[in-house]
Amino acid sequence: MNPAIIRTLSGAALALALLQPSLASAHASFADHAVTVQYGVDLGLGGGFQSLQSFVVTVGDTVELPKISLNNAGTSSWSADFNADGFAFTYTGTLDFMNFGSPKFIGFRVFDAAGVLEPIESASVTNTIYRSGQKGNLIEGFEPSVHFAYNANNLWLNLNESMYHHVPMPGMGDPFRDQIRVSVAFRDVVVPPSPPAPLPVPEPQTYALMLAGLGLTVFAARRPARR
To answer: How far apart are CA 185 and CA 166, in angstroms?
Structure first.
């Protein structure tokens, strides 16, 4: 085929391709979604996790929730603060606690009860470096490799060996270790493009002009080949 004709057709194909909508990548987060937080136990007797308290919370446009208290038999309390990409559980109780030797699991489950979040791709405990004299350090006795777990839809924080004491005591927890901070990444999703708007149907006169123009283009492209 004549190179000029090939260039003409290639240009038309490129113009059509540019008109097609492209796929957009969206990254899910906690923002604007409902999240369920449960505090409960697993006694290790085959009954599985049993929720003692359950809260449904929504991360708003400010991507931060007001603190909520999760009580353990009225003796201790925690606050849960969510942002778009994670959350922090902070001990706010007025009493000391020591869970060493407690049930197989006692702690928090975080999950998407409404089924609107994308699957969890990765999650990790982030406040693992101790900062002397500052609150916000990892709860005493909480080992992320042992006590933190997650799957596509759930995050688990097991406090069965955790400790907190308002007055520092050797080996018994301390008031600066009062938090578990978690970072969560959700799976990227591809948003299907919206169907293109239907093109208007040309009038017969427009068809005639288009055909005439195409004919002139082909004729002009073929003339040099006949010389």
So the answer is: 33
Contact by Cβ (8 Å): 135, 127: no
Instruction: In whole angstroms, give the CA distance from residue 28 to residue 186.
Output: 6
pTM above 0.90, yes or no: no
pLDDT in tens, 54-81: 998 888 765 677 788 876 666 688 999 9
Q: How many domains does the chain have?
A: 1
CB burial of residue 149 (10 Å; 0-12, 13-18, 19+):
middle
Answer whether residue 21 is part of any domain.
Answer: no
Q: Give the residue numbers spanning the domain of 145.
A: 27-190
Tokens of 72: 């353990």
CA of residue 187 relative to chain centroid, distance: 7
